[in-house]
Amino acid sequence: MAQIREVCQPPEIRSRKSAEHWVADVYLRDISPYLTRVLLRTGISPNGVTVIMIVTGFAAGAVLLIPGIPGGFLAAFLGQLQMLWDCCDGEVARWQQRSSPAGVFLDKVGHYTAEGSIPIFLGLRAAGWPGESSIVSYGTLLGLLLSVLVLYNKALNDMVHAARLANGLPKLPDSAEVGTPTRARVRNVRSLVRFFPFQRAFHSVELTLLAFLASIGDAIAGDLIVTRILLLALVVLAVPAIIGHIVAILTSKKLR
Description:
Blueprint: H1 2-8, H2 11-14, H3 22-42, H4 46-62, H5 68-96, H6 101-126, H7 138-166, H8 176-179, H9 184-193, H10 204-221, H11 225-250
């Protein structure tokens, strides 16, 4: 285990500012080496682990079609499990020294799949799936709209890398300084947002945790009202999140 931690979790991995999700820092990186050791014994490739991550992320959304708290709980569990697989595929790659562009591509497929599909399933859940009118309901339409907004917001980060590549700029260092806005007003607004970091709600982990909490609220209310309120709130909050993201990028050093 000590060798796995040394090889698979070097300081430059654990100290990454933007590439690590908070659940990885809190506990996933502590338990991932144990799963990685099991995976290494099977001979599975890093890309094979990533494929499992893709399936798990999609399943995290699909289980929201299961009514009640069980569906919400399974979504939250699979959302955590997806991130655990995400830790392990990189650890397996570093142990086997098999990093590749295909692996990076599949990793992005996994995150886009999860974060794009969870809102759709959340919308179907809010619409009362499998009711006869659920497909054409406002809940379903809001879920589809939220999916588009979440994917657009997520794609902004890849747009930055594409813009830099098109202009022959080097790869961005993974540090907080690069993403810090250079304008004081934008920095002040960003500091205020830290007290209510709503922009984090659009990651698969947060989305599934919120869906789970909403399922508990629904059970208490005896209706889907809490899930519907959550869905509407996420759509409303996605708009300023996107605008703020664009402004933060344009006023930082990411495009310089």
